[in-house]
């Protein structure tokens, strides 16, 4: 600059200098704009609804954005939301009758409504105002559009912020972490090793990406009903511009991305609850050689009768030092201990995760450990990827993971955990040499290959040492797709997401087919021919998949493999049939049933497995993860030997952190359940075609696909 001040006359030099300055300023402008989260300064708040029923919320301030989000959720899911809040109050039987009584007993015994009130007072003043605003938005919608709300659920109105927290608490702690079915199975000694809910998550670093940009794949698999439904939205307000999804009734995004980073959750192999066996003595229980009294509270539950009258029923809640008592029998009792009950700021943590702009900020928020469970899969614009085995993991004195899945002696303080592991203790890897991370509800040791998180470095109770098969063939399918492609493009990631290849078939058919031809009957040989001709996919037109899935269902896999799983060979083990003769006999029996039910062994997958939403009945592709399918759908029996999808791929988002961010998404069942909404099931046909929709985040794109505008 000094030369210019001296009147330097070289025009060529000036042009070069100005070009250089323009180039530098252009880079600076790009960096500033790219890293800037718009502080939306508007005189009003509005919801722009796009043609898929996705609300794009522009708040003049943060409370206004929360209020608009409450309004939006009511417009899309009003009846469902109010019913869920009624259940979270523990008053559902009062509102809707006897069939909700067990739900109320569970919610009240766990102390959900009372704790929600305590949690509300524990919020920061600012976040408390946000929760109040969300509840106000719900109530405002109900006042303005009462005719669209079912009369049965109007009883829940008005909604309070405490209801929002009670719903969160019931969903996270007393559905995902533990639920009555889990406890009953544990007490009965019938612990299933296969998760009832699942998810896929990928984080791909620039070194493994065709574009040289980090990518993220979000793919939870939950029930297609009730409190498990996802709601897709964009929230823009001062300090935030985030896009993603949350469960209906939750006021912040739980899976999200912004211009700089994003994350998804998977259900981790996490044990956040324990059932303790107590020895009853003199109206109390024995603990450390002494008799301790129970803390006892008597509650009154109201139950609506068929004639509309209300019956009162008392509920005696006993609590030991461990937690609430669930059962008493033969001088013994079972008490439940659950993590995270003293951590009331889950919502604020999710909110601040979405406001973070880089890995350092994001980890600082994660270190609060308010979120009691779920793996975090992360990627950002700077090229970082991360896997965090997140959760409130108890510091336990003894035993491995399997020990703590059983019933724990409750008569000694040696088994009573009182602390959780800090953030630094949790299994975590940032930027592995492989360039990719995956989680498919497997232990953290298999997040990448070669292994980057070593089980020997952590207490044996944190997660299972080895996966369970065949449930974890989905993991092996995931590992193989990432390992075998050195440079994955965005389009390829979307294609892999929809993979219906059955990894279990690839492992086992080379043993089963020759065994059936050598040892089996004519029907077994016909079955072998069917399996040989099959494409090993679960596409709608795949013929042979129905027969194979039925055979897998009847096999005993505890000792089914000739080559067991090996920790250092996850891509090739387990493999082979341990007992080919028994496998062939099972195939013959299954073939008889399939032929009788469908008239042929080579019936098409989509003829048997269906997608049914809002009067749409379409052929399905995908299936259960235990078959080694990455494209997960779980089915329930329907009529005429057909099956209907009830859970699996729900919200899917594929994100590339380019400039601008590239993103596609899908809500399998649509972004609404409210009667009359055009968005109930409107994305199902895209689902059948293995397609995602473009995500519209820029205002110009949203306006170009605008369905409705609401201004507050």
Q: Give a short account of the largest sheet.
A: 10 strands, mixed
From the helix content, strand content and strand pairing, which structural class follows?
alpha+beta
Which parts are unreliable, with pLDDT below 50 for 5 consecutive residues or more? 1-40
Q: Oligomeric state of the chains?
A: single chain
- Count of distinct strands: 30
> Percent of residues in helical segments?
25-40%
Report, as a whole number of angstroms, the end-to-end distance. Answer: 51 Å
Q: Report the principal-axis shape.
A: globular
Strand order of the largest sheet: 19-17-16-8-7-6-5-2-1-30
Overall mean pLDDT stands at 93
Give the DSSP E fraction (strand runs of 2 or more residues): 15-25%
- Tally of DSSP helical segments: 21
Radius of gyration: 27 Å
Structure description:
This protein is α+β, with helices and mostly antiparallel strands. Helix content is 34%, strand content 23%. It has 21 helices and 30 strands. The strands form five sheets. A ten-stranded mixed beta sheet has the order 19-17-16-8-7-6-5-2-1-30. Strands 3, 4, 20, 23, 24, 25, 26, 27, 28 and 29 form a ten-stranded mixed beta sheet that branches. Strands 9, 10, 11, 14, 15 and 18 form a six-stranded mixed beta sheet that branches. A hairpin with a 2-residue loop joins strand 14 (325-329) and strand 15 (332-338). Helix 7 crosses helix 8 (161-177). The longest helix is centred in the N-terminal third of the chain and has 27 residues, at 62-88. The protein is globular, with a radius of gyration of 27 Å. It starts with a helix and ends with a strand. Residues 1-40 have low confidence and may be disordered.
């Amino acid at each position: 600059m000094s030369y210019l001040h001296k009147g330097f006359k070289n025009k060529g030099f000036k042009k070069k200098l100005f070009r250089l300055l323009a180039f530098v300023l252009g880079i600076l402008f790009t960096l500033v704009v790219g890293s800037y989260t718009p502080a939306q300064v508007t005189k009003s708040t509005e919801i722009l609804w796009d043609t898929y029923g996705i609300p794009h919320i522009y708040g003049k301030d943060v409370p206004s954005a929360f209020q608009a989000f409450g309004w939006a959720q009511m417009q899309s899911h009003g009846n469902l939301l109010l019913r869920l809040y009624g259940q979270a109050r523990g008053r559902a039987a009062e509102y809707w009758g006897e069939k909700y009584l067990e739900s109320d007993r569970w919610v009240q015994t766990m102390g959900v409504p009372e704790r929600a009130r305590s949690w509300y007072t524990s919020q920061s003043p600012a976040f408390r105002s946000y929760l109040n605003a969300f509840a106000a938005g719900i109530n405002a919608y109900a006042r303005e559009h009462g005719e669209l709300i079912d009369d049965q659920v109007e009883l829940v109105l008005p909604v309070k912020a405490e209801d929002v927290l009670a719903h969160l608490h019931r969903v996270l702690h007393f559905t995902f972490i533990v639920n009555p079915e889990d406890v009953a199975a544990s007490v009965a000694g019938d612990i299933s090793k296969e998760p009832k809910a699942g998810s896929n998550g990928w984080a791909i670093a620039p070194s493994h990406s065709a574009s040289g940009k980090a990518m993220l794949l979000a793919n939870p698999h939950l029930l297609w009903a009730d409190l498990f439904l996802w709601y897709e939205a964009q929230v823009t307000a001062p300090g935030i511009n985030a896009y993603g999804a949350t469960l209906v009734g939750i006021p912040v995004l739980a899976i999200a991305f912004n211009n700089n980073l994003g994350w998804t959750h998977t259900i981790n192999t996490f044990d956040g609850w324990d059932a303790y066996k107590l020895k009853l003595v003199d109206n109390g229980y024995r603990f450390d050689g002494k008799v301790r009294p129970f803390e006892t509270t008597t509650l009154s539950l109201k139950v609506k009768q068929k004639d509309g009258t209300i019956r009162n029923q008392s509920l005696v809640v006993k609590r030991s030092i461990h937690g609430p008592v669930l059962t008493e029998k033969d001088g013994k009792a079972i008490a439940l201990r659950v993590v995270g009950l003293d951590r009331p700021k889950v919502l604020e943590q999710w909110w601040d995760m979405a406001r973070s702009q880089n890995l350092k900020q994001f980890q600082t928020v994660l270190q609060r450990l308010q979120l009691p469970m779920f793996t975090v899969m992360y990627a950002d614009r700077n090229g970082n990827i991360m896997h965090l085995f997140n959760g409130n993991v108890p510091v336990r004195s003894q035993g491995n993971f399997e020990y703590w899945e059983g019933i724990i002696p409750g008569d000694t303080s040696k088994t009573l955990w009182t602390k959780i592991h800090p953030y630094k203790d949790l299994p975590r890897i940032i930027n592995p040499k492989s360039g990719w991370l995956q989680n498919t509800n497997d232990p953290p040791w298999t997040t990448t290959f070669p292994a980057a998180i070593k089980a020997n470095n952590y207490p044996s109770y944190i997660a299972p040492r080895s996966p369970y098969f065949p449930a974890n063939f989905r993991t092996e399918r995931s590992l193989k797709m990432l390992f075998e492609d050195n440079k994955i493009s965005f389009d390829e990631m979307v294609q892999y997401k929809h993979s219906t290849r059955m990894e279990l078939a690839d492992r086992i058919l080379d043993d089963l087919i020759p065994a059936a031809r050598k040892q089996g009957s004519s029907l077994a040989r016909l079955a072998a021919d069917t399996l040989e001709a099959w494409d090993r996919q679960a596409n709608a037109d795949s013929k042979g998949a129905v027969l194979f899935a039925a055979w897998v269902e009847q096999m005993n896999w505890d000792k089914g493999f000739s080559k067991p799983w090996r920790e250092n060979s996850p891509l090739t083990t387990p493999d082979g049939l341990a007992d080919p003769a028994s496998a062939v006999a099972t195939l013959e029996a299954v073939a008889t049933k399939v032929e009788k039910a469908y008239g042929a062994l080579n019936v098409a997958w989509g003829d048997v497995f269906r997608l049914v939403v809002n009067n749409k009945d379409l052929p399905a592709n995908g299936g259960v993860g235990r078959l080694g399918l990455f494209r997960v759908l779980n089915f329930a029996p329907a009529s005429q030997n057909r099956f209907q999808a009830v859970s699996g791929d729900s919200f899917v988002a594929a994100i590339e952190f380019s400039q601008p961010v590239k993103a596609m998404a899908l809500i399998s069942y649509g972004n609404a359940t409210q009667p009359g909404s055009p968005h109930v099931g409107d994305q199902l046909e895209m689902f059948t075609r293995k397609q995602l929709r473009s995500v519209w985040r820029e205002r110009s794109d949203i306006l170009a696909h605008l369905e409705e505008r609401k201004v507050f």
